[in-house]
Amino acid sequence: MKGKTANVGIVIVSHSPLVAKGTADMVRQMVGDSVPLSWCGGNPEGGLGTNAAGILAAIEAAWSDHGVAVFVDLGGAETNSEMAIEMLGEPRSGMVAICNSPLVEGAVIAAAEAAGGASLAKVVATAQELSPS
Amino acid sequence: MVKSREGRLLSLQTDRELVLGLIEACHEAIVIHADDLCELDRAIGDGDHGTNMRRGCEAVYLDRERLCSLPLPQAIETIGMTLVMSVGGASGPLYGTLLIEIGRRLGTRENEADFATILGEAVDAVARRGRAHAGDKTLLDVLYPVQTEMVRQSALINIAKRAEVSAQLTADMKAMRGRASFLGDRSIGHVDPGASSCALLTTAICRYLREYRPA
Fold first, then answer.
1. Which residues are CB-contacts of A116 (< 8 A; sequence separation ≥ 6)?
2. Angle A120-128/A103-115 helices, nearest 10 degrees?
3. Domain range list for chain A
4. How far is A15 from chain B (nearest CA, A)?
């Protein structure tokens, strides 16, 4: 589905593979196959942690020419996601946004928004409304 | 940076020995202290800093023959990218950014005296990457003092001492970034694991360079 969909892609990044996969399952239950979706959980050895190369691969897998929204749990997930986005290079790096929102709620609400064809900016804004600023 | 007076051809040979020596010195320092770093991290974080740093250093070490065949700037940048890809925690992008930025800048500048400036710019990039400042109880609390010593052109032994003292001083700080910040005031009294690994690496590098004599 690489780049073919008109909908924004969703990427879930957690320190735990179980949390990442579980969150992706909940998103899938909500929107089916209408949104490109991928997840990355754990460090390069599969233990708890984060993995820049894996995040990069997840962004590629959920790629949409309309943009990709990335959902992260704790600090290292965010730092590694930022690094992965930079590694995508211009101009694609400018089409990926990390959402400042709770992981599960943010991803599900964002996916529902994305399934309706909303822009990346709208998808991100909807998810971020969940966060007290 | 390590250009010999005899010219560039010889300096490539020198780069090879230097890169290999630095990789081995840093790898040894982290492997020996990995458990200590995990223990520091268990007190105020998730307890994996030593494991993560060891994973990163092992990845670099396994690739050392290829890395030491590269000119120094590219070797440093490539080591940074290897750390990003292998560490598995926030320290990957942080140390990775430091080395990638140093390598890229070294490649475009000729003057050895620029190294303190290059390091300063690279440390600023690390601060932006981690959105952290001096005093936040992070590896920056070692990197900034080390950079200051380099601007002063201090002896290697003094740079190493400053790094070690600076890491210890993070015990008095309250963590403002990373998981340790979740502990608030309870983070006070513990040395920051990232600052500690940074001091270990600085000391290993300084010790190696003191003994290193370009051919």
1. none
2. 150
3. 9-120
4. 9
- Regarding pTM above 0.90, the answer is yes
Max Cα–Cα distance, chain B, nearest Å: 56
Q: Using one digit for the tens of pLDDT, what is the confidence trace for B138-183?
A: 999 999 999 999 999 999 999 999 999 999 999 999 999 999 999 9
Tell whether A116 is within 8 A of chain B (Cβ): no
Cβ pair B22, B207 in contact under 8 A: no
Residues of A with catalytic annotation? 15
d(CA B151, CA B200): 20
Domains, in order of start, for chain B? 8-211 (1.25.40.340)
ipTM: 0.89
Distance CA(B98)–CA(B84), nearest Å, equals 11
Measured between beta carbons, which residues in chain B are less than 8 angstroms from residue A45? 55, 88
Q: Which of 3.20.20.20, 3.40.50.1010, 3.40.50.1970, 3.40.50.510 is the CATH number of A9-120?
A: 3.40.50.510
- Cα of B32 to nearest chain A Cα, Å: 21
Kindly list the residues from chain A whose CB atom is less than 8 angstroms away from the CB atom of residue B130: 79
